[in-house]
Amino acid sequence: MTSWPIPSSDAMDRINKGIGASTGLAGMIRGRLPTAAMLTLLSGCSSAPSRNILGSYFPSWMICALIGTGATVAVRAVLAKTGIDEELPMPIVVYLALATAFSLAIWLLWLA
Question: What is the pLDDT of residues 32-50, one digit of tens each?
Fold first, then answer.
C-alpha cells in the first residue's frame, strides 16, 4: 500500500501564512481573476427572455416553437398541394427539421 507524503508542519505554516504566494500586481490579478471571470459569465443570467402576453409571462422559446410549428404546417400544406409531400423519403424527419429551422430562425431574427 502506498502512503502519501505528509507535509511537515513548517510547510503547512508557509501555506497557511501565504509565504511563497505571488505578491504585488501579479498576485492581485491572480486572486481576482476567478471572481471577474465568474461575474462575466453570470452577467448573461440577468433576466429570462420572456414576453408579457395578456398579463402572463411566457418563455420566448415557447413562442418561437409555436411560430415555427405554424410555419411548418403552412409549408406542409403547400408541399401537399403541389405533390412534393408524397415524394419526401422520410416526411417526419423533414418536418421536424423544418420546425427546428423555423423556430431557430425566428429566435435569431426576433431576439438577437
Answer: 777 777 777 766 655 667 7
User: What is the dihedral sign for C-alpha 51, 54, 57, 60?
Assistant: negative
Same domain, 74 and 27: no
pTM over 0.90: no
Q: Which three cell numbers stand for residue 30?
A: 491572480
Instruction: For residue 67, tell me if it sits in a domain.
Output: yes
DSSP state of 85: G
Residue numbers of the domain that contains 25: 9-45
- What is the signed CA dihedral for 18, 22, 28, 30, rounded to 10 degrees? -100
Same domain, residue pair 62 and 107: yes
